[in-house]
Amino acid sequence: MPPEHEALLILTRQQFPALKDVPCEVEPIVKGGSDRHFYRFTWAGGAHPPMILMVYTLARRDNPKFVPATRRLAALGVQVPHIYAFDEQRLCVWLEDLGRDDLHAHREEAWEIRRPYYEATLREAAKIHAVSSKNLTPTDISSMEPEFTEGLYEWEQNYFIEHFVRGCLRRDADKAEHAPARTVLMALRQRLARLPRCLVHRDFQSQNVLLRDNTAWLVDYQGLRPGLAEYDLASLLFDPYVTLSRSERGALLKYYAELRGLRLPELQEVVYLCAAQRLMQALGAYGNLSRNQGKTHFEQHIPAGVRNLTAVCDEAPELSPLRSLFL
Questions:
Q1: Residue 25 in this model has a pLDDT that exceeds 90
Q2: How far apart are CA 157 and CA 272, in angstroms?
Q3: 57 and 89: one domain?
């Protein structure tokens, strides 16, 4: 066992004295673009259910928000992992192991198989989105990540311009030929900022949904904050990590609208706007992670992100001027 794993096992045995002499297998989990580290602990003889150790840093503002976000979501009845132990000084959280099966793993399967998984995922989202920001206290809001405002939408747009438009495509977004696109960006962030907010997951994509016992379980929700339900829906339905057809997206939007008693045309309209916003943020992230953080495997998702953003511009003609920035 590597010395690092040995040290983590010692720390874990201190946290769970009953497991002091129980043999254990420690397996690192390498996944995603996070600066956190995850390890699976499997105890001999079933002395304790498998657990996940999350070791985080304070380099990202949202990392310490994971534990309070877990407790908040659990109180809402959302399926999230149980926290076995938390060492705030050592920045360690021991969590229920939800297994290895995520929504992303089923991306190649027939829609008849995937559809129930997506519907289960939307049922969990609906529990989060049912909480209006009007019902959150100032203390609640201060304990979360900053809510979606025009300023945050503008930050996401600038992130896209800096790391994808300039960084990957080598285009100068300030040129006169992109003036219509800049006008659309301003109108987009202003319109989204005017809409009523609710709680949102913020990174609601297929790799952050685990499947167990025919139920969807959510992870990576430390970005929980007030925002638009449609942003979460756009993150899931236009996820560059998987392929969904137009009709499949439509069926899922219809399911969600019926679930929450919403009018489908209005929901669909805002989802397209949020999809443009979310996909720009994602393309900016792929550019930043691949070019500046050495995580070059994120480059493979850029073509799908561009395809999805193009499809969104097809659905919402007012977004068409954005094409000059990425096509």
A1: yes
A2: 16
A3: yes
